[in-house]
Design the sequence.
């Protein structure tokens, strides 16, 4: 039988280590970018830094989401004392910051919607182009978080539409992002675009 507590702790530890590695990589790339005078090298380092930062943020949000889910399950298993009807109640019981929870949840929802729309709009777009567009979308989300105290309170569908307008993505796809398939992680081995059909990678040649 699986020990749920041990599994949760292992997941939290692994994600924490992964976030630390992402942070170390981002710091390294930042230092390289600051120490070069070559424009092309600097651009490559800056893009790598942005992607490492995005990976770290996503890892931290996943870690927080798993912790939040765990806390909810523990609360649900407790004998009922009083109803949890507001964010303040949840914060009192679990120690989780309801504002951070709301922001993290909205960031993940916007990123998921954006990846679906980007994949549907440009299925043959190559990885560097996809990552560059997703980096710009992440930068837009970061600005939204900084500039709007009510971030996450807006209607999600309207928020996705606003994001897609800012990113130059088709509004028609933005309006039906919920019905779009999730963006595949793999690439089409023939074109380098999205691998929607799950094509296998070509076999490697044996050498020697």
Sequence:
């Amino acid at each position: 039988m699986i020990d749920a507590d041990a599994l949760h702790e292992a997941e939290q530890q692994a994600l924490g280590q992964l976030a630390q590695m992402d942070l170390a990589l981002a710091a390294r790339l930042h230092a390289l970018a600051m120490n070069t005078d070559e424009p092309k090298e600097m651009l490559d380092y800056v893009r790598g830094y942005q992607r490492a930062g995005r990976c770290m943020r996503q890892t931290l949000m996943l870690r927080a989401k798993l912790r939040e889910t765990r806390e909810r399950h523990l609360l649900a298993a407790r004998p009922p004392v009083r109803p949890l009807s507001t964010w303040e109640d949840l914060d009192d019981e679990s120690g989780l910051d309801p504002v951070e929870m709301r922001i993290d949840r909205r960031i993940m929802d916007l990123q998921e919607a954006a990846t679906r729309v980007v994949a549907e709009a440009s299925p043959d777009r190559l990885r560097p182009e996809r990552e560059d567009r997703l980096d710009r979308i992440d930068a837009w989300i970061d600005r939204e978080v900084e500039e709007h105290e009510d971030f996450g309170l807006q209607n999600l569908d309207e928020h996705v539409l606003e994001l897609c307008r800012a990113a130059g993505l088709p509004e028609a796809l933005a309006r039906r992002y919920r019905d779009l398939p999730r963006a595949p992680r793999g690439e089409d081995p023939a074109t380098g675009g999205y691998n929607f059909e799950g094509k296998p990678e070509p076999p490697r040649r044996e050498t020697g």
Observations:
- Residues 81-94, 195-208 have pLDDT under 50 and may be disordered.
